């Protein structure tokens, strides 16, 4: 077994070195005095590398002879080590003649490293008197010329530097060279300032450009994320927008067959939900990258652990189903409901490990197993997450580099997928959360990753289950022996249900396909069958039909198990004769609830061994979350829906604060959903409970048609906005770039310009700025359309003269509401027409 937390290469040496390099770079950039900055950087590197001496030599002509020599300029030494700084022997040293091997290697950009005892006698003669046992020397280049070198001496231990460490120290040597170069440029500028005023102005201009370039470099990652946000979210704008258009057209259409309309509405619903799901994934990925760009911080909060795990597995169901793999969920009975941790980072770790397992597994199964034992204190639990696959396994010689950045196994390189960063990031996250990650693997058998964490326990609210939250330990006395048949072609899935049910007192039988299920049913006459739907030979649909076609099978309860989310498959399953439909992965709680619901099973609990607990009587004053939401004002619900859809947590908090004291339970539930990153649940609940928003059909006829200019380089986005606005009565003009938008504005004189920000040629910011500079008379409203959430871009947009910002994907109702506000419009609705 290779345990990441115990690997000095990954978690101690490499991590310590990388942090030391980051600290050294920070000190180079933030220390005002040039000499002190380099000295501080050396001190940081000394602590990070655990060497005894670090020094920098400059290569220069001899002041008297002009021959090439080196002189020591900086030095850091560990406590107890004799410094060499000030030693005349290290000034004007003719290294080209006395150390020709060093000179040639450094000029080629190569390092010198190894044990001094293995060096040539002439080099030993120079190094041994300084007490050096092992050494690493890396070149420092300035403007493609070897300026000198940095040395790392071990005087108390032998050390062989690996390639990754050498590369990292070469990189920081380049940063030191850059700092020295900048200092030299400043010195030259000062000298020029004493003689030539014009050259000072020229140099100042160069420095201003350098400053701009430095600022742009510091924003490079933010710019990249903004670009990715734009490129990913902009197509979704058209996808989500046109589904709304098509849904509206279907609602207005007459004369179409009801079945066809319903089918198309279901299809559009699938497209829209898939788009919303993809948008959520994109937002999470971009948010993750923004956290990486600004430094990682933990955000622990209470959350429902089993609910999070089921949600993670749900994301991978389609991928597993497409590859014919079983995705198994095994949650131990002692696993706590609520814990305190950074849910987003834990979810990312599990997604990385599950994604890898599914990627490299061709046949068999992938299992997520979680178990819990008492933690180091009474209010903590020690959790072990296991991700097991039946994939190709990892060779022993690849295990040591498994968590190294940008390193992939043989299987990873063959798959030609990924960056090799997933495991490294996962390990860092687990380590920051105070845990460890390990792996064991057998080639040809499979791989198991284990994540161990000790987490504080927390109380979290959950929906009231049909089965008591108390631990079920068996069946209550006086009941029949319930016969249960488990049908699934994957043995792991069957064993999971057997493991849940057999210890409680159920009589369990198994079948690996539909044909075997028929034989088992005829032999044992089970009370209930858990029927997997997709199986070889005979699937679950066919087996169910045959059982239900037999008069003896009419009283057998059959519950379908499937990973599918498509409504048409649900309808097919129920039509075949199944009494219920459960999506995988199935949890123990759902399993027991369904048995209680369909067979009337009564359980025996841990604190009441002889008799079942009293049936819970719901409190008269309590209401479900959806019922409580349905009682709120329509405008408030609409705002909550839009805020949740846009991930505006501060706006949600403000809306929750408006609730009255009688809605304290609702406020608490909404706050917990926000803290648990379940904004998708708020979107779903508000969609379900708020009344449908009436479609706008026009404007009063006495209103002059408002003129709108749509500026967007994507034709599908312009078409979407035209399809939204033109039928209502807006007069539309279009432009595909900023220059055309400015020219069209002069002729068309629109009251509102919907200005996309990122366009080729003249972008939306430049176009807005030019319009503001040239406007005469009544200025137009300029509404910026952007898919980027970058704060610096928002500031630039508003500074250019834009009046409002709207973020893609757009919502038709939001756009119409904004136009009504800007232009003081009153719309006509179908209900008003009917009443007239």
Molecular structure report:
The strands form six sheets. The chain has a six-stranded mixed beta sheet, with helices on both faces. Strands 3-2-6-5-4 form a five-stranded antiparallel beta sheet, with helices on both faces. The chain is built from 30 helices and 25 strands. It is flat and about 110 Å long. The protein is an alpha/beta fold and 836 residues long. The model is unreliable at 1-11, 413-420, 463-469 and 609-623 (pLDDT under 50).
Question: Which percent bin holds the helix content?
Answer: 40-55%
Tell me the quaternary state.
single chain
Q: What profile does the largest beta sheet have? A: 6 strands, mixed
Mean pLDDT: 79
Number of strands: 25
Any idea what the radius of gyration is? 34 Å
Give the overall shape.
Answer: flat
